[in-house]
Every structure is written in C-alpha cells, then in structure tokens.
Amino acid sequence: MTEFAEDGTGILTGAASAPASLARAAAALTQVRLFGFSLGMIGERIFRDAPALLLLIFMTNYLAIPPAMAGIAIFIPKILIVFVDPMVGSFSDRLNSRWGRRRPLMLAGSLLTSLSMILFFHVPRFAGAIPQSIYMSLIVLLGFMGYSLFSVPYLTMASEIAGGDDERRNVMSWRVVFMAVGLSISAFAGGLVQFLGGGLHGYAAMSWIYAGICLFTMLSTVLATRGIATAPGDLERASLISRFRMVAANKRYLRLLLVGFAQKVGEGVGYGSFAYFCIYVVHQPLSAIGLVVLASTAGQVLAQPLWLRASRRWSAPTLYTVGVLGWCLNLLLWLAMKDQSPYWLIPLGLQAGVSAGGFLMVTLGMLSNTMAADAAETGLNREGVYSGAWLAMEKLAFALGALVVGVLLSLFGFLESAGGATVRQSSTAILGIAIIYCGVNMAIYLGSILAVRQIAAKTSGAA
C-alpha cells in the first residue's frame, strides 16, 4: 500500500513510488513527444469551444430557431452523451490491441469530430423551427459521440504517461497552454466568418478550415503517442455499474466533480452568451472576441510559470480563490467596454487569461493527482472510468449552461431571426443579456470556491 503525503497544495499525492508501467511511460516522454501529445488539445478545444461560441447565435439569428428551443436542441443530445463517456472510458480501460488501449479510439474520434464540425454549419433548409432543431440535435449527438471517443482516452493518457507529481504537473501545464491556444483559435471563428463574407456562406467556409485544424492536431497526438508504454488493459470484466460504484466510493473525486460541474456550467453560460453580449450590450464586433481571447491566451501562457511556482508555496484553495476572484473582476470590467475601442479589450483579455490559468491549473492538477493516487492505492487501471465520468460531467454542465442562456434569453424577450437579419431588441432583452453574462456567470464561479475549500478541509481531516 502506497503512503500519501501533502504536496504543499492541499492535494494528496503518492509519496512512495509510481507503478512500474508509469515509470516506463515517463521515460519515453521526450519533449518532442510531449509537444505532439499536447497538440491534440488544440483540436479538442476548437471542437468544444467554436460551436459553443457560435452555434446558439447561429441557430437563433440564421435558422430562426427560438432561443429556448435552440438551447434544448443542444442540451438533449448532450444528456445522452453523458452515458457514452463512461462507456468509452471503461472500454478503453479493458482494450488490448497492437495500437494500445487508447489510440484506436482517439483515431476514430478525430475523424468523426472533424466531419461533424463541417456538418454543424451546413444545414439543409427545413420548413419550420422544429425540423431545424431536430436536425441540429442529431448532428450535435453525432459530433459529441466522436468527441467522446477522442477526449476520454486523451484525458486518461495524461495521467498514465507521466510518473510522479512533478511530471504530472508538467504535462498538465503543457495542456493548459495548448488549451489556451485552441481557445484562441476558436475565438477567431466569428471574425473568420466575417472575413469570409459573412452569412451562411461565411459559416460554411469557416467550418471547413476549423475541421482541418481539428483533424491535423488530433492525428498528431495519435502519432506522437505511438510506442509510449502504458499499463496493460484491465482484464477484469466488471460491469460498468460496479466500476461506477467503486469510483463513487472515492468521496474526494465526487467533491472535485462538483467543482468541475460549477466551473463548466459557468463556462457554458459565458460561451453561450458572449457573442450576444458583444453585439447587443457593449457594441463590439464578433471579430473582437478573437482579439480578447488572443490576449487571454497570452495571459495564460505567460502566467503558467508563476502559478506553478505559487503552487509549491500556497494551498490549492488559496490559488483557486485568487484565480476566481480575478475572473469575477474581469466580468465587472466588461460592463465599462460599451462602444470602446477594441484595443481596450487587450488588457482585459490578459487579466482574464492570468486568472483562468490559475484556477484551471489547480483543478486539472487535483484531478490528475486523484486518479494517480487511486491507481497507486488500489492497483486497478480504472482511470478511464474517472475520465469518462469527468468528461460526461463537462458536457452535461456545458450544455446546461447553453440551456440556461437560451431559456433566460426567451424569458427576457429576445427575438430570433433568419439569415442574420437585424432585429431590434428591447431594452429588457439587452439588460437580460448583461445579467446572464456577468451576474449568473459570477455567482456560479464564486460558489465553486466553497466546494474547493471543502475538498481541502476533508483532505486535511483525513490526513
């Protein structure tokens, strides 16, 4: 039985030794491989974030789907995906093939997600909002099934290929950096639509470009992980329900899942409402989103060494609280950006990136350590079940955020349109957009601080 000790961040980590298979994996993890492995985070983030930024407004302003119906059309298929993620994780835990446990699924996922990115914005014309909504639900379901095939094994491998706490922190830091790059590329989707001529044609052309980026970066990860040793597949034929019971017994993981759920609901609300907020509240073009997120990317990248140093001296709750409070301040500052020059958004984006980089690093580090501690303590390879449950939670929370935006937009009286036609919105609708993006978002993130502090308190009490 491995003994555990505090690592200085309020997180329990293995103090003895990692499994031999993980040590072999770490030995093969050169900087070139680490770069190639992390590159897939760009495609993964583009597929998740570009549709999150534009799909809802595309449906309300170009397909004439009412906001609440559009939110429901996105939410329902993601409920179904919640059941797919754990099954993919469990299957990848037990898979033994000449290409490894995870890579065959990642290959299939990279192909399916790239195809779905194109289909999102190539929508046949149907008579009425209901057929349009049904079609979009089916495409969202197809796309996120592919996303599960890639992202669940990908998240699991981040824990498997690194040996030791420092190595895991290094892997996660690289992932945060490439996550920021993917987010930055996603944020330019609206500007790219405008550059390509706007309208339905602009959306369609954008989707081809982004599908190509997804395919290249995801396949790079599949190729980069060739030959990296990981633990053999778990030959135990336990049912998925029994595996979930084992995972559910890990109270610390369940508390961490609650933190992630709050984060992702807030993120879903922010993504779903940001384009509306820019256009209708602060009167900024969609291209300004790219400028903001590019600055945010720079903030995340530049701040990572500082957050890593701070993680060795300060507790996880302290780091998390500082990051979230900085994020909430950023939301308030946005209200002063009405009709301002887009260049004023650069420092705002930098500050947002610095803040987000902190609380994201803490959360990912806690997740990776929790999975590694479970593997070391039990000797079981069930990281895929943990990863599947985590990503299922992310998709459900993200979709719930979009649903909240759609329903609240309808309640505040937002009017849908077809083909991008300009519709004058009421002052109540515009006020509602501001409340959704700033107020609802802030309340959710502040609530997540309490959950992180509870995890630290429970961990400390059990130590």
Task: Summarize the structure in words.
The chain is mainly α. The chain has one domain: Up-down Bundle (Growth Hormone, Chain: A), CATH 1.20.1250. Helices cover 77% and strands 1% of the residues. The chain has 15 helices and 2 strands. It has helices spanning 20-27, 31-61, 67-94, 103-120, 129-160, 165-187, 189-195, 199-224, 240-248, 251-281, 287-311, 316-334, 345-378, 383-411, 427-462; strands at 4-6, 12-14. Strands 1-2 form a two-stranded antiparallel sheet. The protein is globular, with a radius of gyration of 21 Å. The protein starts with a strand and ends with a helix.
The CATH topology is given as Growth Hormone, Chain: A
Fraction of residues in β-strands: under 5%
Report the biggest beta sheet as strand number plus sense, adding barrel if it closes.
Answer: 2 strands, antiparallel
Principal-axis shape equals: globular
Top CATH class: Mainly Alpha
CATH architecture identity: Up-down Bundle
Residues in helix, % = over 70%
Provide the number of structural domains. 1
Please provide the ordered H/E string of secondary-structure elements. Answer: EEHHHHHHHHHHHHHHH
In short:
The protein is mainly α and 463 residues long.
What keywords describe this structure?
disordered N terminus; 2 strands; Growth Hormone, Chain: A; single chain; 463 residues; globular; mainly alpha; two-stranded antiparallel sheet
Element layout with pairings:
Blueprint: E1 4-6, E2 12-14, H1 20-27, H2 31-61, H3 67-94, H4 103-120, H5 129-160, H6 165-187, H7 189-195, H8 199-224, H9 240-248, H10 251-281, H11 287-311, H12 316-334, H13 345-378, H14 383-411, H15 427-462
Antiparallel strand pairs: 1-2
Helix pairs in contact: 2-3, 2-5, 2-6, 2-8, 2-10, 3-5, 3-14, 4-5, 4-8, 5-14, 6-11, 6-13, 7-8, 7-11, 10-13, 10-14, 10-15, 11-13, 12-13, 12-15, 14-15
